[in-house]
Sequence to fold (142 residues):
Amino acid sequence: MSVDAKYWTEAQATGGGRNGVSKLTSGMLTVTLASPKELGGSGAGHNPEELFALGYSACYLGAMRFAAQSEKLGTVPADATVNAHVGIGPRSDGGFGIKVKLVVTMPGVDRAVAEKIVERGHFICPYSNATKGNIEVVTELA
Fold:
């Protein structure tokens, strides 16, 4: 499978990686990073898992909206939400891994329609496509 990239962005990390600074080279965003206390860090900054959760939740919500509109599945309401829970920990075969739980709310949408939108959202979302077969992603329709 090939991807015809229509947009690129660039970020740069400096310092200690998980304990350092990451910034967009455009200058539009700079984030101070610190490992979470649960992993022995100070917790005095943000971490890559938080940034991944921000990106995945926004991208997946957008993908669901796109799927609903383009496939005429209905409308995703303005008050719909996606909460991305991203966990990190040691893998059984060594190193570290992440796992994701997406909790979706679509108030006022028939459950069968919402389930179809949730399913099609994964087909469209670049984050879902990137993680498919690589990490555990569980989706819950609340």
